[in-house]
Amino acid sequence: MSKPWKKYFTAGLDQLKPSADNPRINGEAVKATMESIRKCGYISPIIVDDDLNVQAGHTRLEALRELEHTEAEVLQIRGLSEKAKREFRNLDNRILDFFRLDLEKLADEVAGLDFDEDVFHISELVDAFSDEGDGVPDEEPAAPTQLNLRFGKITAPMTDEEYKVLQDLYGEYSGGAGNTQGFVTWLLGRMA
Predict the structure, then answer these.
(1) Residue span of the structural domain in which 187 resides
(2) Same domain (yes/no): 80, 113
(3) SS3 helix, strand, coil % of the chain, rounded to 5?
């Protein structure tokens, strides 16, 4: 097998084919991406295969379409096997599962910037790091009176016990070396 090669070019959005197997539910992410594109322009290319099937960038593609753009910069990776494409798509979708934010640095970074508060909720993070301290609470914050589990547009109330169980399960999941499943898939597998 020859080594895959890359090519940058501009393509019409109507030429790009989103993956039917994309596991992401992008509603809120599309809004945030649209705001980013409005503020900063379109910067990051959509990654496609030989046949212009989207491998990474479904959210950017959806945002560009919502903003009525007609074309996008793409990075075409040619010569990947179907298995390599699936691995890349799934690993790319999982990247966000592994990051953490240094909220103090984030507060410094966004201070004075103009973000759509309904999309990004930045002030909540900035308020957590006011000049009154180092941003690190002295003790564990009190649990809110009503806990909710949110996914997409659905909000489901939870008890304190359910929250603790879910928190413990997520800790078990995120500590699993080499775990290749999404959290919900992993959780449902434990229930079977």
Answers:
(1) 143-192
(2) no
(3) 45, 20, 40
Same domain, 77 and 37: yes
DSSP state, 19? -
Which is nearest to 59 in space by CA: 87, 89, 88?
A: 89
- pLDDT tens over the chain, length 192 residues: 456 688 999 999 999 998 877 777 777 788 888 988 988 888 889 999 999 999 989 999 999 999 999 999 999 988 888 888 888 887 776 666 666 667 677 777 777 777 666 555 555 555 555 444 444 444 544 444 567 777 666 777 777 777 778 777 777 777 665 555 677 777 777 776
State how far the alpha carbon of 113 is from the alpha carbons of 47, 52, 122, in Å: 29, 36, 10
Q: Provide φ and ψ at 76, rounded to 5°.
A: -95, 125
Backbone angles phi, psi at 134, to 5 degrees: -90, 5
Kindly report the CATH number assigned to the domain that includes residue 19: 3.90.1530.10
CB 97 within 8 A of CB 174: yes
- What are the tokens at 32? 């945030």
Angle in degrees, 0-180, between the axes of helices 160-174 and 183-191, rounded to the nearest 10: 110
Number of CB atoms found within 10 A of residue 153's CB: 8
